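Request: Have a read of the protein record below and say how the chain folds.
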Amino acid sequence: MIYKKVPIVEIDLRNDRFRISYMPHRKRLTESIHAIGLIHPIILRTINSTEYCQIISGFQRVQSCIDLNMKQIDSIIYSSDELSDAKALLLSLHQTVTSRAMNLIEKSLCLRKLSEIGHMEEATLITDIMPLLDLEPGKKIFQNVMRLWELDDHLKAYIVENNVALSNAALFSSFSREDQKNLFDLIIPLRLGTNKLKEFLTHIDEIRHRDEIVASQIIDSEMKTILADQNMPTPQKIETIRKRLKEKRFPALAALEKKIQNNLRQLKLPPELSLSIPPFLEGEKLKVDFSFKNEEELREIIIKLTALSRQKELETILEML
C-alpha cells in the first residue's frame, strides 16, 4: 500500500467493479472539494499487466474532481496481491456506511456484488453484512433486498427518489418487467404515500394471482382515462382508482354495496336528511346527517327519523350490513 497523488488519466474510469453507489447526491461533495479540497483520499487497486488503477472507493470524489478540472488526486493504492475482491468490496462498504446512509438499491447492489464477486456465503451476508446495511438480519428480507437490483431502472429511481419502504419495493419485484412498467405509469402521476402505495400494489397483486392475468389487464382504460384527466385533482384520481381496484378485488362486496345504495334511494329521504354507508362496508353502522336552523325544524327531523326507522327498506339495508 502506498500513498501518493495519482494523475486522473491513470485511473480506469470505466471500471465499476467495486461501485456500490446508485443515484448519489454529488453536488454538496463537489462544492466541499472546491471550497477546502479533498479531505479523504480515494482508494485504488492496481490492475495487473496495465498502467491503470481501478477505483475501490471514491467514485463520486473522482467525478467531482473531474468536474473541477483537477488533474491528479490524493490516493491510497493497493496491489492486487494486497487486496482481494472480497476485501476490496468490504473496504468500499465500510467507507460508505461510515460517511452516509445507503439507499435500498445500493444495499441490494452491495449484497449482490459481495455474493457474486466476493463469493461470500449467504449466511455470512445475513449475519455480518445486513446489520452494517441497517437491515434486519433474516433470509426473507435478504431475498427481498437482493431482488431489488433486478427492477426496471425507472422503478429503481422511483424507489430512491421517494424513499419507498422495503415492504413496498419488494412488492414491485414480484411483478414481471412488463408489469413493472405498467405499474410505474400508474403510480408516478398519483404520487402515492406509503399506505396507499401498499394498498394499490397489494390489490393488483392479489387480482392477478386470483384471475391469472397481468397488470396491464387490471389497469384498464377507465383508470387510464382518469389518469389523463387534466381537470381532476390528484386526490380525487387516487380515490376513484382506489375504488375501481377494490371493485375488481372484491366484486361480491362491490355488488352488495351497489344493492344497498339502490335501497337507500328507495327511502326517498328529504333534502335535509341523508343516510350513508361506510365505503366498501368497512363497518357495520349507517351514518345519518341532517341540518336544521331552529327547534321546530329539529322536531320535524326527529319525526322523520322515527318514520324512517319503520320503513321496510331500512330493515333490508340493516340486514345486508
In short: The chain has 16 helices and six strands. Residues 263-320 form one domain. The first strand starts at residue 2 and ends at 7. The chain has a mean pLDDT of 91.
